[in-house]
Amino acid sequence: MIRKSTGLILAFDVEWDVKRSVTFLSSISDLVDAVKIGWYQLLNIGPQGIKELIRSVNKYFLADFKLGDVSHINEYVIKKAHELGINGVIMHAVTGGENLVTPVNIARELGVDVYLLISMSSGGELYDKSLDYNILLGMDLGVSGFVVPATKPSIIRQVRSVVGGKYQLLSPGVGAQGGKPGCAIASGADFEIVGRSIINSESPRETAINIVRAIKNPSDC
Ligand code: 3DU
Question: Which residue among 4, 36, 51, 66 is the active-site one?
């Protein structure tokens, strides 16, 4: 599980080398509870770059590979991610129980958290039609939590009301995609995931401070 302090997760979608990435992350490290990396960064700096980054920055690293393959491939990827030092992975619910059960169990044995994506910040209409099914699927599998969009607060409220307090809800779509900082957490999420608003800001630290402030004291949600 991600340890909560500020409630902010940085979506670190950048094209920078490891050195620049470490410098940036060190400058806002106290403001973020976790760093989310994904395909873009893996393709930019490669697995060794990811390994070096994780070794250099003392943070929870969440791999957003949105895993949605057959069971054994999901399993291979989770094992490789673990070797790189990844603490948690995001998986697509849509791949279904049969393709999720073994990978989730293997992740648990390795100490890697699984967060199940059950709704998208834009589109994802098939997900939203089967929300109840996917919530129960995740609970049955024993995932650590769910990815639910800041752009759909009613979905966050619905998921929270079903899962209770035991599961962590991570919410992307804050800032650049329209979600107002603080409002996803006010709707029941545990963490807000923010990328471009911080990364592209002229003053990333100041922007992150303002987001953390809004998370602590949300208004106009
Ligand atoms: O829009 P931003 O720059 O704050 O980035 C959002 C991040 O969250 C990005 O890494 C994307 O892959 C992820 N995400 C969504 O944007 C929407 C989802 O439904 C799930 C994940």
Answer: 66
DSSP code of 4? P
Write the CA distances from 14 to 79, 88, 119, 185, integer angstroms.
24, 19, 24, 25
Pocket flag, ligand 1, residue 121 (CB < 6 Å)? yes
Task: For residue range 159-191, list pLDDT tens digits in order.
Answer: 999 999 999 999 999 999 999 999 999 999 999
CA of 138 to the centre of ligand 1 (A): 20
* CA atoms of 221 and 206, how far apart (whole Å): 22
pLDDT tens digits for 65-95? 999 999 999 999 999 999 999 999 999 999 9
With a 6 A CB cut-off, is 176 part of the ligand 1 pocket? Answer: yes
What single DSSP character describes residue 59? Answer: S
